[in-house]
Amino acid sequence: MATERTRRAVLAASGSLATLGLAGCFGDDGDDEEYVAVEALTLTDPETGESLTAIEGDGWEVEPLLVPLEGRLPVGARVEDADGELPLGEDESYHVGAVAVEEGDETVAIEPDGDRVGLVGRSAGKTEITVELWDGDRFGWDSPPLEVEVVDDFEGPVA
């Protein structure tokens, strides 16, 4: 009789584990899935509109993006889907953001602001960020990793 209870316990536990495993595989809430089909992304100087870098194939045409140590580099964005340029900004449905690829990396602080982000150089060195497109509070798309280098001898526009 003890053997029978043990088998039942093992079978019950196995069934519970299988159910939990399947819930983990199929329980995706969709928050991290891309749903905007971005065809082009160009990062710009928001004051001049000049291109800083753009996605080319599976990567970026110019890397690394240089950021001043203890300074702020404002970065604008132009995003296009199959229908053309998407409206970006605080008063628009779409806005851009960015995150460090490696969680906890504090080389660069990121300050999102509607149609642009501010990159603040916290410590000299290299890191990677991913540019994100949001539709309100819903994640829409993210870029391939972009190498960013914080440098002490920065020559360029700084906010």
TrEMBL record:
Descriptive protein name: Aspartic acid-rich protein
PROSITE patterns linked to this entry: PROKAR_LIPOPROTEIN
Organism the protein comes from: Natronococcus amylolyticus DSM 10524
